[in-house]
Amino acid sequence: MVKVEFLEDTPAILAAVGVKISQTPFEEGGIKDLYKECRENKKQWVKIVNQIMKKHRHMILADFLPYAITLEDLSRFAAIYLWRNVNVHNLIFGAGIEASLRVIKPNRCNKVVSDFGKTAFEVYQRLLEIGVPIQDARYVLPEGTLTRMIFTAPPRYLIKLANALKNTPLPELREIGKEIARLITEKFNLDIPEELLPSKWNFWGTRRIKERSSIDYQGTVHSLSLNMRVKGSLAMYAQLVRQREFLCEIEPLENIARTSRFVIPPTFPKDAIEEYKKIATRAKTDQMELISKRDPNFVYFLLLGQEAKAMIYGKGSGLIETSRARSEGVAQWEIRNTVGIPLTKELARYPELRKEIGPRCWREGRCIEPPTFKSKKSVCEVFLRSGGNWQGTLRELLQTLSEPYKVFTFSTSKV
Description:
CATH topology of the largest domain: Gyrase A, domain 2
Structural class: alpha+beta
Strand content: 5-15%
Oligomer: single chain
Number of domains: 2
């Protein structure tokens, strides 16, 4: 069961709790323990927060208010569903940090997927043992994997988010919505009329994404407007929606299950792919059985590597920033190939934007090539080839940064 609590402190300390949540293994204690450590070492953690903002430009740490909602033991699905609603297009403003399964090994699942989750974790562990990076091994995990997060927003937007969660068929989301609404009413004595969001992520239906990419530009960055059709794993979308720059209109969850396509990380050797196919086959069977009963719990059996299609809608400088951050060689490979590089190619159609977009080695003619997250190893192919002094064209650069995007799929008759 999700533990939803209200936490009050200075913005810097709550941001520090967010840093701890992102990086701390689950075995080392709950959110209360992480908060206690930050409070007991206040000067040290305030310094760390400021260093992170200055050195790494993770400015979300400056978005925190003097209070936040903490969520312990929510499913990975609940987290992505919550984050998908937070963006300017939905008129919800907020910030938060989630445990990063790119660096933390998960250790438990929602009880709905107890047996399946145990098997998935065994496959996950075997992949790690044969050298698959942790950020890629997570593709075999179900959306019922448990995580945690901290989130802050003005009361009005928390209430809007709570309303959106309460109006879903999934008990977990409804319970989170009710608890957030209760806490805000209790803490702020506010009774705000229900406001519905302009968009929602549907559980049921087989509507397919048909709209094609288009971009509008009237000579100024703030005039930029993008509609772009994308596809990628649910793991990739979890990163994209946390960025808050886009509205992601992801196809209905039932359609994702019925299509049953699974993204294959390029680091997976043949043995890993076979393991992946076995767990995906079982996931598909469980998903379809629950769908036949009209049981919304099927979403917990979706794998993080399961592919979905979406339209993303973005505006202004957010497009420029996404091009810069997501096309870099150190960006996660899938979001770079499905969002960063295609977006950069779209923006590169306008000559006056070409030196504002793309990787730093292109924009500035230099690159410090920060090591991959939590690693001292340089992995950017461009950096390895040119030492950060890229002399080719932007087109050649993006081609060098591109990696193969492969999937496998099952027909219903095979499971």
